[in-house]
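U., I forgot to send this yesterday:
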Amino acid sequence: MRAPTSAHGPHRPPGDGEDGSLVTEYGLLAVVAATIAGVLIQWATGGAVVDLFNALVDRARELVGA
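Result:
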């Protein structure tokens, strides 16, 4: 009798060690996403958005000669 197979290869018994690594990967992804979001929030609330907008307006004025 053959072992059951699926589209991903032979059937693996439960608890083969792969389940924990997937949870760890998603956990690390959540930590990285939260860190990036925190950095962006700090950057935006620190006046950087206003400074960036002012720099863009100044550059546009230079280009049109105003």
